[in-house]
Specification:
alpha/beta, Rossmann fold, 8-stranded mixed beta sheet, 10 helices, 10 strands, 16% strand, globular, binds S-adenosylmethionine
Length: 259
Amino acid sequence: MVHQVTSFLNYWLNEVNAHSLQSPFIYSLYTTCIRKDSNKNEFKEIEQTRNRLLHSEMLVKPIDWGAPSTVHSNSSNVRVSAIAKQGLTKPKISRLLNRLIQYSNSKHIVELGTSFGLNTLYMAQSEEVKVTTFEGSKEIADIALTNFEFFKKSNIKLVEGNIDETLPKFIDSRIHIDFAYIDANHRFEPTINYFKLLLKRTHDNSIMVFDDIYWSKEMTQAWNTIKEHPQVTLSIDLFDVGIVLFKPDLSKTHYTLMF
Ligand SMILES: C[S@@+](CC[C@H](N)C(=O)[O-])C[C@H]1O[C@@H](n2cnc3c(N)ncnc32)[C@H](O)[C@@H]1O
């Protein structure tokens, strides 16, 4: 908690807006995609599903992946409503993911950490994209699958199991990743391992989004390591998420942007 508060103060002191952006590429990305939250009304049905989850009395047994959690301790049974309240991203982030995918014209999407599949649904909105999403808790994955069925989504594939085992197998298949959203095991080592594995299948125009970069010291350490990676040319800190791009024609720059 102390880490999150001091990190937010630091972010708040450093954040800049469009007036400070000199590069036409980042100016356009920021003003026409990141900051332009114009797609609020497109997801009413998904938000109704969030609402149902927020009121669900159903119990599930999340797996303890070793990272601190505000939702559960010692893998006890937890109400779906508690996970929906504290363990999911804000709709603002979900909309951002959808806009980034549209802006970059990404087609092959990977999500690590499906949970109930709300962000998956936001990312899979267009039938032109294919989303492969990874979740390790069977009971949670089953709820996500029900949601995908409800929305009649045939462009989502859920891979069940521990990402430490399922992701290397997936990466071994001949796939290209245009967009990856990482919100799974919030620890340093798994996050860096996932980043390195995903890098094997990304390309110059791919985008990766890391959630909860200030969740803990370990996550911030992972974010700092990712930013410094030689293949990362542009990194953007929005506090809730960190975005990295790999375009070789950009000179390595980091931005902390108001969001
Ligand atoms: C924070 S939640 C994801 C929330 C989701 N991004 C959203 O906002 O809709 C993280 C999920 O990742 C899953 N997870 C964490 N570590 C994992 C691992 N090693 N293998 C598989 N799933 C994992 C958890 O079970 C949990 O459901």
